[in-house]
Structures are given as C-alpha cells and as structure tokens.
Amino acid sequence: MSPAEHTARSGRRRAMPEPWSLGAAVIAILVLAPIVAVIWIALFPSENIWPHLLATTLPRYFGTTLMLMAGVGALAGSAGAGAAWLISRYTFPGRRWLEWLLLLPLAIPAYVGAYALVDFLEYAGPVQTGLRHLFGWRSARDYWFPEIRSLGAAVIVLSAALYPYVYLLARNAFREQSGASEEVARSLGAGAFGRFWRVGLPLARPAIAAGMAIAMMESVNDFGTVDYFAVQTLTTGIFSVWLQSNNAGGAAQIASTVLALVILLVLFEKTSRRRMRFFNLSTRHRPVERRTLHGGAAWLATLACILPFAMGFVLPAAVILSHALDNARFWSDGALWKAVWHTVSVGGIASVVTVLGGVFLVYGVRLSGRALPRLLLPATTIGYAAPGAVLGVGILIPLAALDHALADTVETVTGRDIGLVLTGSAFALVLAYFVRFFAIAQGAADAAMGRVSPNLAHAARSLGRTRGRTLAEIYYPLMRASVASALLLVFVDCVKELPATLLLRPFNYETLATRVHDQASLENLGGAAPAAILVIAVGLVAVGMLARANR
Length: 551
Fold this sequence. Notes:
551 residues, mainly alpha, MetI-like fold, 2 domains, two-stranded parallel ribbon
C-alpha cells in the first residue's frame, strides 16, 4: 500500500464515527427527543386551542402555579436555611439527632403528606373531633376551621416535603464559611441575627438559591398534592386538557409553558451561582466554632428544628402507619403485591438501563474528544428538571403514532395483528423513567470517571485492551460504589414518580405510587396505607445513603 493510500484510508477511518461516540450521540438524542417533541407538537398542533387557552384557563393555571412556586420557595427556603444555620452554628438539646432527622422528609412523597394532613385535620379527624369534645361544639356550624384543601395547605405540605433540599445545601455552605468572618462581625457588635443576616446569609446565598430553585421545580412537577387539594396548576391543566378534553395539542401547549417556566428556574439557579462567588483569602481556613445555647434560647432552637421535621415526616408517617396497622387486611390484597411486582420490575429495569446509558454516554463523550458530544452532555440533564407530566406528553404522543404504524406494518406484511407493543406495555414507563432520571446516572458516572487517572486507561490500551475491556477492567472496579449509588437513587425516584406513571402506564397497570393515589382519591386511606408505607421504606434507604455521603 502506498503512503498516499494509507493516508487516505486513515483519514476515512477518522471521519467514520466510532461505535462509542455514535452510541453516546444516540443516547443523548433519545433523552432530548421528548422535550423536542413537546415543543414540536405545541408549535404544530392538529387543533390549535392556544387562543382559547389564553382567553380562559391558562392565566388561572399560570397564576396559581406562580403563587405555589413563590410560596414553596419562600417557606422551604426559610425553614431549610434557618434550620441549617442553627445546626451549623449552635449546640442545643437534640442537635446531633436533628442534624440527620431533618433529612427524613425526603423519604416521604409530598402526595403522601397531603393525604395524611387531610386525614388529620378533616372534620372527622382527631383535631376537629378533639376540639368538639373539648368545647362542646355539636357541628361545623358552631366553630370556624381553616379550609384544608386549599392553595395554602398545598404550599405547607410541599414545603414540608421539599425543605431538605435547601437545608442540605445551606448546611454545607454554612459549614464551609470561615470562622474569621464570624469573629470580625462579633467584634463589630453584630448580634446573632446580625451575623446571620449580614454575614452568613449573603455568603450562603448561592447555595440557598439553588435549593429553593430545586424545591420550586419539584412543586411545578407535583400532581398528587395539588390534585388532592383541588388546586388548579399547569400540571393539573395538562391532565385536564389531555384526558378530559381529549386535546393532545392543547396539553402540549400547556406542557411547553411548564417547560419554559422550568428552564427559567434552571437559568436563574445557574446565574445566581455564577454571579456570586466568594473566596477564602486566609492561608489557614478555620471553621466556625459552634456556640452553646442555654435556657429558653436552647429549647427554642430545638423547637425550631423539630417543627419542620415533625410536619414533613412525623405527622405523615404516624398517620399512614396507624392506618396500615388498623387495616391489616389490605396487606394481603393481591392487587397490592401485584403493584409491588410492577414497581420493582419496571423500576429495576429502568434503573439498570438508565445507569448503563449514563456510563456509556460519559465514556463515549470522553473517547470522542469532539465539541458536539461535549455540548450534548450537559443538555441531557434537562430531563430531571422537566416535570413528569411534560415528559408524558412528549413520549406518549409520538410513541403512540410509532406504535400504530408498527402494528399496521406488521399486519400488512404478516397478516397478524400484534397490538400496541410499545404503549400497551411498560416500555413507555421505562423510557419516561430513563429520560426523567438520566441526569442522576450521568452525573454519578461523570464524577466517578473523572476521579480515575487517564494514565490507567492509557496503560491498559498500550497493553492491547480494547476500549470496552478498558471500561470493564479499569473503570468499572473503581466506579463500582458510585454506580451502585446511582442505581439505588434512580430506583427510589422511579418508585416515587407519579405524574409520568399516571399518564404512561398501560390499562389496569398499577405501581405503588399509582395505587396510593388511586386509593386516596377514593378516600380509602386504609387501602392506600400499605403501599404508602412501602414507598416510604424505599425512600428511607435513599435518605440513609444520602446522610452517610454527607457526613
């Protein structure tokens, strides 16, 4: 072979995409496709009801969603940042336990907290029953009690479930602050509140803003809580327009509004962190020493930390557990264990596929070295910010069209009707979980792979190992713990996911989350309790792992 031919063949080989890079691009496209589909359907609907939406329901949906987001952001931010400040700056009774107990509300989905709160505060619940017995009231006409199923109650429930996001980020930010700034503020006469407001809070503001943005995005994603409280948000609007009005284009247009709102939140969170940077100028970083509180101040600090924990975990867990114990017969219900099997099988498949896809994508991008795959890598994390209802619209409508085309083609060629293979099975659920939680797997794989020295891979390649064997023999043993953690976190999120599951599940197909929602919607909290207990138990495992990682 002449040198010119060898050069030409080498050039063609370089121009051909290698399998790892091509596979990474396919995975990135698969993750981004539902988002693109929502935007496309919204721009080119079969029946354009955008003017009707703007003139009727959309302003109400949008206004309620904004009020919900603002309320959750403010309340969750205050509770999370306040508890983080007390935990990181002071010593008081129960502090060591509360430092980790404050994370437990993450184990309880907000919709479970909503069902528990209504059961606790409704007319026949223990609070109002006790008040009637105590004061001799005969009926609801004899006294006033706040409306439980309201926007305010939804804000309280969501804040109690989501404040740990703010607490965890703020606590880490307060811990990393230098003790010198605290001492300077004290020497200038700043009191406890002054040191928090003028020193601690401004330095931790990027972390607090990030936590609040996450809480607000989760409140936009929520369906179970707002639906149970009869609060009309953009997410409930998607369900209403699509399932009740049978207008997929209108649902996509509302979903695109939700998507735009979430993207604005993501940009706000990233901008707040980029524009506010603080550096430790001291050569010897000295952490802040916690001060010991005494007397009433100590017990007030304990109470301030107990309240969000009690509201977010103790109350819902106690109510659900009491119903589970009082209605033991529901534990033997075959439908419950069928829902357990569906949850474990679909969640397990989705978590394995998602983590494998995340590892493949990160490895393929590292091997590629080109600009486009590196640009696609951060873009694939948008699925985690997109609400499940939005992904449901972006997945089900194109997938249903593909499914019908596939069935028609097979019937034309073979004469056999295979039915709806994609939307008539759990495939759509697995795909939705894959897109929704891909960011967790991708982030874990990227962080773990970044800790492996490139020299190890170069040495393996020089010894004749293929790229696949290098991944299996060099990277995987060093990434095993991170991969296992990502598998567990993705599985837990699949178990708790409700909006996407409600939209994409096949007919008569229940998971634990949908069983809790369906039974609670029928006011059968006793029937919902066993499934809710199992969901909480799975969540506790993830919270325990999170607490261990943040020691």
